[in-house]
Design goal:
Number of domains: 2
Shape: globular
Number of helices: 10
Distance between the termini: 27 Å
Radius of gyration: 20 Å
Structural class: alpha/beta
CATH topology of the largest domain: Spore Coat Polysaccharide Biosynthesis Protein SpsA, Chain A
């Protein structure tokens, strides 16, 4: 089998339908399987898949396992030479699936490849990045990254028309060589929402597999599919995931430094937007409340023992 397409769903029935329709339209002559893991949705997603896409291998988890846990359910079952992790809030265009398999066949040292992702307006999305270093996090907190045309972390300033070795490829559309995954292992389920693909990419690199962005067109990524339902908890979970990354790959001191930087970031934003709220700036009050909630929930963002790293 050429390609196993793995999609994790949580209450995004309509997005999932559109995603699956685009996938099946783009398979061409590939020998493929499509695996959907449903993280205990309550919106009828599973009934829709069974009724409209009977060829899909559907796994119903019974609970929300998160991105890593959900994907791992399917990754244990895949049969393809390659795997595509695909978000429900994506649309696959043209021959990108066929072209990606051809490209991977021609690059046997590449363990993970990212195609070109588009925003809804057709602009190119920064779908690959560097590892989120403490230096970058500090610059972001001080607001320095917005004053530069080149953001080294998000690799803004590069038009994505050329191939490039990168540290991290977005899990929204990530092609993985199955043989490399067998060597590196599954996603680390200690990461519930953010950081799982960053950790995975770091482990592929440590195992001496290349990670490459290839300008293969094209996948549209709408963003904020399941994540949009999390409200301020999204930032809390991102803080936990980023801190866990530094704990796992840098040790306790790195994790404490990361946590302190992100705490300062959220607190400073809460103060900033509160001041603008006093000046009656439109939308400022809502932003102040958002970051205020994140700041209050910061103790929950420290990686807890019951989510200790398994990988």
């Amino acid at each position: 089998m050429d390609l196993s397409i793995v999609i994790v769903n949580w209450n995004t029935e309509n997005l999932l339908r559109d995603c699956l329709q685009s996938v099946y339209s783009g398979l061409g002559s590939l020998h493929t399987e499509v695996l959907v893991v449903d993280n205990a949705s309550s919106d009828g997603s599973c009934d829709m898949v069974r009724a409209e896409f009977p060829a899909v291998r559907l796994f119903e988890s019974g609970e929300n396992l998160g991105f890593a846990g959900g994907n791992n359910v399917a990754l244990k079952q895949v049969l393809g030479r390659y795997i595509l992790l695909l978000n429900t809030d994506t649309i696959v265009h043209g021959t990108v699936l066929q072209d990606a398999v051809t490209w991977l066949d021609a690059h046997p040292t590449v363990g993970v490849m990212g195609p070109r992702l588009l925003n809804t307006d057709g602009s190119v999305q920064p779908s690959c990045s560097a590892f989120p270093s403490l230096g970058h996090l500090a610059m972001q907190t001080m607001g320095l990254t917005r004053f530069s045309k080149w953001d080294a972390y998000r690799m803004i300033g590069w038009d994505r028309t050329t191939e490039r070795n990168v540290d991290v490829i977005s899990g929204a559309a990530m092609f993985v060589r199955t043989a490399a995954m067998r060597q590196v292992g599954l996603l680390d389920e200690a990461f519930f929402f953010y950081g799982e693909e960053t950790d995975w990419c770091r482990r592929f690199a440590q195992a001496e597999w290349e990670l490459v962005f290839a300008p293969i067109p094209e996948v549209t990524h709408f963003g904020n599919g399941s994540a949009g339902k999390l409200n301020h908890r999204r930032d809390v979970l991102m803080t936990e995931g980023t801190t866990r990354l530094h704990l796992k790959h840098g040790g306790l001191l790195a994790a404490l430094s990361c946590f302190a930087i992100l705490a300062a970031h959220n607190t400073s934003r809460a103060i900033f937007w509160s001041v603008l709220g006093l000046l009656h700036r439109p939308g400022a009050k809502a932003r102040a409340q958002h970051f205020g909630k994140v700041t209050l929930d910061m103790p929950k963002a420290w990686p807890s023992k019951h989510r200790a790293a398994k990988a």
